[in-house]
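Page 47, continued from p. 46.
Same chain as before, 182 aa.
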Amino acid sequence: MIKIYVLRSAPYKYTVGGNNLYQSFNAIIKGEVEVSVVDGAKKIFIKGASKDLLRIKKVYTSFKLACRQTAGFISDKYVPIWELSEVGYEMEDFISESDFFDEAGRANIILARRMFVEAFIADKLKEKRDDVFDRIDRLKDLIKSKKAGNIVFISHGFFIKIFEAYIRDGNLRKNPENFLSY
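Result:
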């Protein structure tokens, strides 16, 4: 039997290079900058992780620095794989900078997440929806190829949510609007 742990990277500082949050998200997702996990992330991670998780040797991660650092908290023999990359998008695919901030200048994260989901369902992101599902199918094949033991996948928030929904709902590819249920 195989047990799969799917984890988001440890926290990292979201604002970079003097940019506002919207610009920082764009710079990070486009790969213009790499971000490290925040100071103390390893200590917090180790304290909250189960002993079983910390003994796993099969750790797969996204290539992004924060994900690789998180993987390193578990094992120094982690494997970065493209299939665990964040969904390919740019902020302007689903929300303008002016809509991202409210009148007081606060980031409207809830609105941005909702608009991301709507853009994913409508297939309006840089990475096409079927390409995301194909990556998840390759991850499923990777899981099936393992005979026993536990596996850790470390990725990004949006991708993890889509991964979870796709695994639970065999009709998500045909009926992407089902993603609203997750």
